[in-house]
Amino acid sequence: MTTHYDILGIEKDATKDDIKKAYRSKVMKAHPDRGGDEEEFKRIQKAYDILRDPEKRTEYDWGQGKSYNPRAGYTRGRRSTTNKAAFTVDDLKTMWEEKLRKTDSWDTGEYDYSDEYDYDIFDDDNYYKTRKRKNKTTRITVAVNLSETMTETSKTISVKTDYGNEYDPIEIKIPRGVEDESEVVYRGVGDNTYPDVKRGDLIVKFVLVNDTNFILDPAENSDVHVNLITADKISMFDAILGTELFIKDIANKTYKLKIPAGTQSNTAFKMKGLGLYLPGSNARGDLSVIVNVTIPQLDDLSKEHQELILNSRKKG
Q1: Of 1, 7, 62, 239, whose CB has the highest number of CB atoms within 10 Å?
Q2: What is the pLDDT along the chain (316 residues), one digit of tens a residue?
Q3: Are residues 148 and 202 both part of a single domain?
């Protein structure tokens, strides 16, 4: 059975950077605008969407048969002392998530349990000491289309407010030039399990999604990815003689691009300043236009054209 790891060509212990690098390499080759297979493109996108998200990746790995025992280190009625200090707050969080996953209350939101308990590894009984109750930080992931980063936009999202099935519609502002996998904190709109105390915060991770006609440049070697790639087609005759293309950038503005005579298929032309905005800046990245030359079928050509091509071949 082909796994998402197989599709991206990575190992199961691949890091976040490994996943991103493999995705950008694969998606470039499979992009339909570059002559790739559309179904393969969709499989790559789906694999990346799951593996880049820690929660989805964990759920996927469990579904692939990885062993998981939420009661490891326990005996009935009392925790075993044969493995002292091995049980951590992360283990407690995992157990809570497993419990919630088996009910209707599970969603993509994530609660931060890290400050729920005091844990002393030198306590022989490894007891947890509860602190004063407080509402927790909720974490969610929001997908943003590349074109949506060109202006400050707003989105209304549903945020789980407690451990049950209560959701609140929350309007969040998405800053212009938001980075892929960047996080923004929204104060006081998160968990509200305890209404009598201060409401928790909401942390939103933004994940950029490739546009229909634009993708992030996988070859860009920087911490902030703002360069884009698009593709267009020209005829064999335009490639030989040269032509002009009218290119729409991701902000839907039209620009003229001169194609010189003798252009080869799969040639990239860089258009400066037509990429995404740098965060907090008016500067933009670049747009690379990949030109593909279409070769007509012989039957589609007139007899005059056919004779002209045959004569040209004889002379060449």
Answers
A1: 239
A2: 789 899 899 998 888 888 888 887 887 777 766 667 778 888 888 888 889 888 888 888 887 644 444 444 433 444 434 444 444 555 555 555 554 444 433 344 444 444 444 444 444 444 444 456 788 888 888 888 899 999 998 888 887 766 656 777 888 888 899 888 888 898 888 888 888 888 889 899 888 888 888 988 877 666 677 889 999 999 988 999 999 999 999 999 999 999 999 999 999 999 999 999 988 889 999 999 999 998 888 787 788 887 887 887 777 6
A3: yes
Element (H, E) at 62: helix 54-63
The model carries a pTM of: 0.54
Residue 70 lies inside a defined structural domain of this protein: no
User: Cα–Cα distance between 22 and 306 in angstroms, integer?
Assistant: 44
- Coil/strand/helix, residue 255: strand
CATH number at residue 262: 2.60.260.20
CATH number of the domain to which 19 belongs: 1.10.287.110
Could you give the 3-state DSSP secondary structure of residue 22?
Answer: helix
End-to-end CA distance of the chain: 52
Q: Is residue 77 part of a domain?
A: no
Strand ranges (DSSP E) for the chain? Answer: 74-75, 78-79, 110-111, 117-119, 128-130, 138-145, 153-160, 167-174, 182-186, 202-209, 215-216, 228-235, 243-248, 254-259, 267-271, 287-294
The phi, psi pair for 270, rounded to 5°, reads -95, 130
Range of 110's domain? 85-209
Chain Cα centroid distance, residue 286: 20
Q: Are residues 300 and 244 in the same domain?
A: yes
55 to each of 115, 191, 270, 276, how far by Cα in Å?
A: 20, 19, 38, 28
Q: Are 44 and 142 in a shared domain?
A: no
